[in-house]
Automatic annotation (TrEMBL):
<dbReference type="GO" id="GO:0005758">
    <property type="term" value="C:mitochondrial intermembrane space"/>
</dbReference>
<dbReference type="InterPro" id="IPR019171">
    <property type="entry name" value="MIX23"/>
</dbReference>
<keyword id="KW-0175">Coiled coil</keyword>
<dbReference type="Pfam" id="PF09774">
    <property type="entry name" value="MIX23"/>
</dbReference>
<feature type="coiled-coil region">
    <location>
        <begin position="61"/>
        <end position="91"/>
    </location>
</feature>
<comment type="similarity">
    <text>Belongs to the MIX23 family.</text>
</comment>
<protein>
    <recommendedName>
        <fullName>Protein MIX23</fullName>
    </recommendedName>
</protein>
Length: 121
């Protein structure tokens, strides 16, 4: 569920080149479109998207970490509870997945900023 949400939220990054091609005017449209303003708006949209995604991922990590901690404490008291162990493993896997999403987010963000950075050159 969270991965699907992140995939949808990363659309702006996936389409950055297309966005730039459709927002930066060609020579014939230079006077009709404010490229500087358009770039600022695209930059702000990227910043907002990156901030939102990072906040969502970190919130999920915090919540899942809390669940894992609680399950570990319960497991200490009931070491032969197989269902509890199964649930703990499931939550630990989910936590690792969320932590890896932070790494994915960093790569996605870097790629988008590099594309935008080429405009300044």
């Amino acid at each position: 569920l969270i991965q699907e949400l992140l995939r949808v939220m990363r659309t702006i990054d996936d389409r950055i080149v297309h966005e730039l091609n459709t927002t930066i005017p060609t020579a014939s449209f230079v006077g009709k479109i404010d490229a500087s303003q358009t770039c600022k708006e695209l930059y702000q949209s990227l910043m907002d998207a990156h901030t939102s995604r990072e906040r969502i991922i970190k919130n999920c990590i915090a919540q899942t970490s809390s669940v894992v901690k609680t399950l570990r404490e319960e497991r200490e008291k009931a070491q032969d509870d197989v269902a509890l162990l199964k649930q703990l493993r499931k939550e630990q896997t989910k936590l690792k997945l969320m932590q890896s999403e932070l790494n994915v987010e960093e790569v996605v963000n870097d790629r988008s900023w590099k594309v935008l950075g080429h405009l300044k050159q």
